[in-house]
Amino acid sequence: MTAFSYQLNAREKQARAGTLQTPHGTVHTPVFMPVGTHSAVRTLTWPQVAETGAEIVLSNSYHLYLRPGHELVERAGGLHGWMNWQKPILTDSGGFQVFSLAKHRDITPEGVHFKDVVDGSKHFMGPKESMRIQNALGADIIMAFDECPPGAAEYKYAKESLEITNRWLEICFEHHSRPLDQALFPIVQGSVYEDLRTQSVEFVSQFPAHGFAIGGVSVGETKMQMNQVVSFTAPLLPPDKPRYLMGVGTPEDLLEGIKHGIDMFDCVMPTRVARHGSFFTPYGKKIIRNAEYKEDFAPLVEDCGCYTCRNHSRAYLRHIYRMGETTAATLISIHNIYSLVELAKEARRQILAGTFERFYMQAMARLGMVGNGAPTH
Amino acid sequence: MTAFSYQLNAREKQARAGTLQTPHGTVHTPVFMPVGTHSAVRTLTWPQVAETGAEIVLSNSYHLYLRPGHELVERAGGLHGWMNWQKPILTDSGGFQVFSLAKHRDITPEGVHFKDVVDGSKHFMGPKESMRIQNALGADIIMAFDECPPGAAEYKYAKESLEITNRWLEICFEHHSRPLDQALFPIVQGSVYEDLRTQSVEFVSQFPAHGFAIGGVSVGETKMQMNQVVSFTAPLLPPDKPRYLMGVGTPEDLLEGIKHGIDMFDCVMPTRVARHGSFFTPYGKKIIRNAEYKEDFAPLVEDCGCYTCRNHSRAYLRHIYRMGETTAATLISIHNIYSLVELAKEARRQILAGTFERFYMQAMARLGMVGNGAPTH
Question: What is the C-alpha separation between B232 and B194, in angstroms, rounded?
Answer without folding.
Answer: 7
